[in-house]
Specification:
Helix content is about 90%, strand content about 0%. By secondary structure, it is mainly α. The protein folds into two domains: about 1-65, no CATH class; about 85-175. Helix 2 packs across helix 4 and helix 6 (about 90-125) packs antiparallel against helix 7.
Length: about 180
């Protein structure tokens, strides 16, 4: 008996809701009709509110009780919850990838804003021929830029791999639902 109660739980609670809606609509409709019709007119059509209250309660019930919509919403909720769980699972890796990319950008900014200036100043103090200073600085910048590009590409590949893993888990979730 307990299992039959749980499977038909919604059918037990919603008919009472339907009856309450029907009764409310019937009462409101009858009060409105009494305000605009005479007693003689009301006696000609004694059950005027019955069809109307059935119709309105059926429409309201369809809006309130919609199992197809509820099922879709439950699937959507489960999917979104699982995606959130996946993101929580990858939280540390996402933080790492973000900080890695930020560190690379910061290192690049530091190199061009201060380190390169310090190197240029040191070279001027050594009294090395300007031609060689320029060549050495050019090679340093080229080498460093190349290194930063490689680091950035590796970080991007890590992020792309991470996104692929997250998308794969999300796709598996969609297939399950």
């Amino acid at each position: 008996m307990e299992s039959s109660m749980s499977t038909s739980e919604s059918s037990i609670s919603f008919p009472s809701l339907k009856e309450k809606i029907k009764e409310f609509v019937k009462t409101e409709f009858e009060e409105s009709i009494k305000k605009i019709c005479s007693e003689a007119e009301l006696k000609k059509s004694p059950n005027l509110s019955e069809g109307y209250s059935d119709y309105v309660s059926r429409i309201i019930e369809e809006i309130v009780v919609n199992p197809a919509r509820d099922k879709k919403l439950q699937i959507l909720y489960n999917h979104e919850k699982h995606i959130l769980d996946i993101l929580k699972e990858y939280k540390e890796e996402i933080k790492f990838a973000t900080s890695l990319q930020a560190d690379i950008r910061k290192e690049e900014a530091t190199f061009f804003s201060s380190t390169l200036k310090e190197v240029c100043a040191s070279l001027k103090e050594t009294q090395v021929d300007t031609k060689y200073q320029i060549q050495w600085i050019f090679e340093l910048v080229s080498s460093y830029t190349s290194s930063l590009k490689l680091s950035n590409r590796l970080a991007e590949e890590h992020v792309i791999k991470l996104l692929g893993e997250i998308q794969q888990e999300a796709a598996e979730t969609i297939k399950k639902d």
